[in-house]
Amino acid sequence: MWQAIRRHPALVPRIRGVLSGLAATAAGGKDEAMQKVWISKARAALDQPYTPPVKAVRKPVVEEVPAEEPEPVIDLREPEPAQQRQPHKAIPTMLFQEPS
User: Fold this and answer.
1) Rounded distance, CA 97 to CA 79, Å?
2) Which of 1, 22, 26, 84 could serve as 35's disulfide partner, Cβ 3.0–4.6 Å?
3) pLDDT tens digits for range 50-90
4) Distance, CA of 5 to CA of 77 (rounded, Å)
5) Burial 22-52, CB ≥16 within 10 A → b, else e
6) Quick check: 46 and 5 in contact, CB under 8 A?
7) Concatenated DSSP letters of 31-86
8) Do residues 78 and 31 make contact, with C-beta atoms less than 8 angstroms apart?
9) Using one digit for the tens of pLDDT, what is the confidence trace for 32-56?
10) pLDDT at position 36, please?
11) What is the C-alpha separation between 20 and 13, in angstroms, rounded?
């Protein structure tokens, strides 16, 4: 916000005058300390020199040409049979007996 005010040289003295008036009216109040902090921060922001923003040089936009994708290779051979799998080992059955 302060950058926008610093851009206009006529606003800076007016704002300083308003801040001085605000500081005078805040004297003796219960919020005087906090208002002085805000006023001093505003004055410090106004004291910073205004530097106009530097415009960056735009690089020309280069349109990327999509690379041609190679055609997918279709393999018509039958897959080689995998090694024969061993049958699963049978799980031993558990016998539950009735208590006698």
Assistant:
1) 50
2) 26
3) 666 677 778 777 777 777 888 888 877 777 766 667 777 78
4) 77
5) ebeebeeeeeeeebeeebeebeeebeeeeee
6) yes
7) THHHHHHHHHHHHHHHHSPP-PPPPPPPPPP-PPPPPPPPPPPP--SPPPPPPPPP
8) no
9) 888 888 888 888 887 777 666 677 7
10) 85
11) 11
**Sequence letter at residue 75:** D
Amino acid identity, residue 31?
Answer: D
Question: CB–CB of 43/19 below 8 Å?
Answer: yes
With a pLDDT cut of 90, the percent of the chain lying above it is: 0
- What single DSSP character describes residue 18? H
| Cα 82 → chain centroid | 52
